[in-house]
Design brief:
The complex is a heterodimer of chains A (268) and B (504). Chain A is built from eleven helices and ten strands. Chain A is an alpha/beta fold and 268 residues long. With 504 residues, chain B is an alpha+beta fold. Classes of the chains: A alpha/beta (268), B alpha+beta (504).
Chain lengths: 268, 504
């Protein structure tokens, strides 16, 4: 269970990115955070795995306050939290398999990783992760030779290598077209359902939110302005969505059910 | 330079401070002053500045041309008569001066005056001054090009100089008995295929000191190398050798086209030790001729050039090597994104950048001169000069590529729980290797090019030979050096392009 209490982040230039944010995420949840760009979604996700240090507040995960961790303890905690990024953040010149294996760095000694050596077990895991995401035949290509959708799958595979209990996904589909967006969200849903990985995902599109979220909250100017359950979200119409989200809310396009067929077919 | 007349809002609103006639008069006294007071300050200052510069330069050209004359009128007369360009320049400056006055009037009158003509005039004047100062002589370029022909041809195709035939001095001897006895030595016999020398008679008396001249001997030679000069030497009984003189001059002989010659010589004066002075001794007379022996071989120049081109490549290589080694740590200090954490590190960043910029602005040739003073002539000075310059250049390029790395992968690797070292190895290094490799090869390229000329100032390598051969006007040898440089640079160009393509 993840519990965030009184989380505040003020940047050095005085920008208040998060203002007294409180929420609880039970294990196995698919939580979607909605909000305009600049509303604090990215900051919130990065505060949880401490890529950004919060100014104030507690982030309690499995009884440990992540906000107070440092050094090796923080690294141990990060190992169990995967992260997927809007721009994939792959090492573009390295091979796909190297990018995926990088997910095991937290479990590998400095000496081994310096030599680029990973255990046979890790290599098998990487192979398995690639198979699960349907990109096993791309393993030895350079990451930047892959299409956007494939690159994001590599990003997910890297997160998966950490054997995470939770995945933070920061706008994972914002750089993808609608079909690929659905396909990737389905992958995350599978991880959520089959592997029981808690997912915190920031999203833009109403239909994706309605289709995949088990719980939602909306951020505006660093404050939580909306909390909703799966049912409440499903019942919501565009006008209500725009009210929390602002006028820029949009759908991926097409109907909710109708899209899934194409999404299933157009994986790569 | 912008003499734009397009009035800015303030110029348009405010009227001139002085009436047109006064403005013109002021510009007559000091060019540009009228325009300044007419509130077109920038235009006035530019006119003032251009006029002062042009006049100063023109005066200097007059003094230079009429160097030996004194007095204003003499100098002007001499200058105008010697250099037609100065006549045109003087006229143009006067036109410029008058135009400036007219312009001042028009500006103050707010009737508008197009500055394009003035600007054009200033450019023309500066161009003509440049022609004068640069001593541009297109006639020489065309008429004297012919004289350079032989030298340039030698440089273009110097390869006959790459081989040579070994030469040696061939000595042919005959014996002379001094003084004559009843049994003078028998003359050597005729030979079939080797040069031989006959003396007649084979004995005689030496010239006495301030006394009677010695006896005359007729020398006949055969089978010598035709038409090639030969010298006459003596070897006295105690083994000392000296050249035959006649009337104070050394004498030379040149065999005819059959390799034969005939010459009368007077036995020389020679001071010999007392113990052999009054006894009969055998003296040897020698004909020495330079002859080719054996087959062709590679010339000394070619061997030297090969030696030095190898040295050159290694100078470039070592300089690049040391440059990389030292530029790597320096580049981290010069990368703003790494050094902006605190004011102290930011201070180090600025100091590093400043030092790098200063070093880079000094040409490697000048560094070479400095290092020749420190470590002496030779390749080491060249290596040091190129190293210093490489550190500065690579330091800047490396640090800029560090500054431009994508922070995304870094945060992604951090998020996996990787430690600092792992982040560097997996997220930073893969990103900086391609630009580093690219810049390094580029620098290697530059260093080899530079090392070919660093020898001109004593920094070792082939440039030293080249400068020497050019000064000796040995254009064939210089041509060999030029060819080696060209071949090396071409190969290097190709290799570096290939390597860069592989890595980047």
């Amino acid at each position: 269970m993840l519990e965030v209490r009184h989380l505040t982040k003020i940047y050095d230039d005085g920008t208040v990115a998060l203002r007294d944010v409180n929420f609880i995420v039970p294990d196995g949840e698919f939580l979607v955070i909605i909000g305009l760009s600049g509303s604090g979604k990215s900051t919130l996700l990065r505060c949880i795995n401490r890529l950004i240090d919060p100014t104030e507040g507690e982030i309690i995960w499995d009884g440990v306050d992540l906000a107070k961790l440092g050094g090796d303890d923080l690294r141990m905690a990060r190992r169990k939290i995967g992260m997927v990024f809007q721009h994939f953040n792959l090492v573009r010149r390295s091979s796909v398999i190297t990018n995926v294996l990088a997910g095991r760095l937290g479990y590998t000694s400095s000496r081994q990783s310096l030599l680029g050596r990973f255990s046979a077990e890790d290599n098998a895991k990487a192979q398995h992760a690639l198979e699960r995401l349907g990109i096993e035949d791309q393993a030895h290509k350079r990451a930047d030779e892959l299409s956007g959708g494939q690159q994001q799958r590599v990003g997910v595979a890297r997160a998966l290598m950490q054997e995470p209990k939770m995945i933070l996904a920061d706008e994972p589909v914002a750089s993808l077209d609608p079909v690929l967006a659905h396909s990737l969200m389905q992958q995350l849903e599978i991880l959520n359902k089959e592997d029981k990985i808690t997912i915190l995902c920031s999203l833009h599109y109403l239909d994706l939110v309605q289709r995949y979220a088990t719980s939602v909250f909306g951020l505006r100017d660093g404050e939580i302005v909306y909390r909703g359950t799966r049912e409440e979200i499903r019942a919501m119409n565009d006008e209500e969505f725009k009210e929390i989200y602002g006028q820029e809310a949009e759908r991926v396009g097409g109907g909710l059910q109708g899209d899934l067929l194409t999404a299933n077919g157009g994986g790569a | 330079m912008r003499l734009s007349h397009t009035p800015t809002s303030s110029e348009e609103l405010k009227p001139s401070l002085v009436p047109p006639f006064l403005a013109a008069t002021l510009s007559l006294i000091i060019p540009g002053l009228g325009q300044i007071l007419a509130r077109t300050i920038r235009r006035g200052l530019l006119l003032l500045f251009s006029f002062a510069t042009i006049t100063g330069l023109l005066v200097w050209r007059f003094i230079e041309t009429a160097r030996r004359d004194t007095g204003l009128i003499n100098i002007v007369k001499k200058g105008l008569s010697l250099e037609p360009a100065l006549v045109i320049l003087s006229i143009l400056v006067i036109v410029f001066y008058i135009w400036n006055v007219v312009d001042a009037y028009a500006i103050a009158n707010r009737s508008g005056s197009n500055p394009a003509g003035l600007l054009f005039l200033v450019i023309i004047i500066f161009f003509m001054l440049g022609w004068q100062i640069g001593q541009i002589d297109l006639v020489a370029l065309i008429t004297q090009a012919d004289d350079a022909g032989p030298a340039l041809t030698s440089v273009l195709w110097p390869w006959e100089r790459s081989i040579e035939y070994p030469k040696d001095i061939v000595t042919t001897t005959a014996q002379i008995q001094i003084p004559c006895t009843e049994t003078p030595p028998a003359p050597s016999g005729a030979l079939e295929d080797a040069p031989y020398l006959l003396a007649d008679p084979t004995c005689g008396t030496l010239t006495e000191f301030e006394g009677a001249p010695g006896s005359t001997v007729t020398l006949t030679g055969h089978n010598f190398i035709p038409n090639t000069r030969a010298n006459i030497w003596w070897k006295d009984p105690i083994g000392n050798e000296f050249r035959q003189r006649q009337g104070g001059e050394y004498i030379n002989i040149t065999p005819d086209e059959n390799g034969a010659f005939k010459i009368d010589i007077v036995l020389p004066y020679r001071l010999v030790p007392a113990n052999i002075r009054d006894v009969t001794t055998i003296w040897e007379i020698q004909i020495r001729q330079v002859a080719s022996i054996g087959d062709w071989q590679f010339s000394t120049e070619l061997k030297l050039a090969i030696e030095k081109i190898i040295e050159t490549i290694f100078i470039g290589m070592m300089a690049t090597f040391f440059g990389i080694l030292l530029a790597l740590p320096v580049s981290f200090f010069a990368a703003r994104n790494l050094m902006s954490a605190s004011p102290i590190t930011l201070g180090i960043y600025f100091i590093t950048r400043t030092i790098l910029n200063i070093i880079r602005s000094i040409e490697p040739l000048i560094w070479a001169i400095i290092f020749v003073v420190i470590v002496g002539l030779g390749p080491f000075a060249g290596i040091m000069a190129l190293t210093i310059h490489s550190i500065a250049a690579l330091g800047k390029l490396y640090s800029e590529s560090i500054e431009s790395i994508d922070p995304g992968p870094i945060e992604a690797i951090q998020a996996t729980g990787a430690n600092w070292l792992q982040v560097v190895v997996y997220a930073v290094i893969p990103q900086i290797i391609p630009p580093f490799v690219s810049f390094t090869i580029y620098r290697w390229d530059i260093n080899i090019r530079m090392s070919t000329i660093i020898g001109f100032v004593g920094g070792g390598g082939i440039g030293f030979l080249l400068s020497q051969w050019i000064r000796l006007m040995d254009y064939k040898a210089a041509g060999i050096a030029v060819w080696f440089i060209a071949i090396t640079v071409a190969i290097l160009d190709f290799v570096s392009a290939e390597v860069r393509q592989r890595f980047v």
